[in-house]
Amino acid sequence: MNNATSDQKFTIDLSPARNGRIPEALREKLAGDGFNDVLDFFEEVNSTYVAQIMSIMHGLIGADLGQVHKTGNLNYRLCDYNTDTADPTSDNGCGAHTDYGTFTIIFQDGTSGLEIEDAEQPGLWVPVPGDATVVLAGWCAVILSGGNIRATRHRVRRTPGVRRLSAVLFVAPDVEATLRPLEDVKVVRPFTKKVMDGQLDVGEFKEVMGKKWRRREGNEKSDDGDDTETQDSEIERFIWA
Q1: 32 located within any domain
Q2: How many CA atoms lie within 13 A of 227 on its CB side?
Q3: The Fe2OG dioxygenase domain covers which part of the protein (predicted)?
Q4: Residue 213 belongs to some domain of the structure
Q5: What global pTM score does this model have?
Q6: pLDDT digits (tens, 9 = 90+) for 55-67
Q7: Measured torsion, CA atoms of residues 87, 89, 94, 97, in degrees rounded to the nearest 10
């Protein structure tokens, strides 16, 4: 509540790897609060929709994304834009950013607030209906597709006094996969030599982006003041020639 410029939300981050490390006694306690239902929900989303979306993207770019999505690099996030933990003067639920991975699926509770930036008119924010389920491409999809897929910049605006909940599934390539345009795609925009020469892997790219999103979320202080608006511009300089 002391940093009105950071994201005004409370989050719980889960993943198949993290879930396996939760002590059984704690899992049993959490089960009474619906924890198993949450895991079942994300597992159903994974088994039902992830392959379908991959197939659609395959059709768009003419290359199989499955070749770099073999290990199931998934993360789940529960977001609570809670009025009790938010700065009452801030309308910033989640600052403007583009996700790092291949794609993100966002499930909302019916409360509006999510906005996406118009790709043709940067700076113009389009509200998303609160009951819509949204699929957004991330930076890894941009690189793997040779620039044929655009990443979607988005943000969440708070309404003072209104609580908002969302559940998010993040899909990313294998951590050790080389992050460069797939062999069969047509590159429509030149990338940096580091990217084209295969000198960048997914894990390193996540680390580069992680410094920015930790600052935006308020989990890490910036050395140069508030730089939340520069997250995407820095990544653009990192990948585009």
Answers
A1: yes
A2: 18
A3: 69-173
A4: yes
A5: 0.92
A6: 999 999 999 999 9
A7: -130
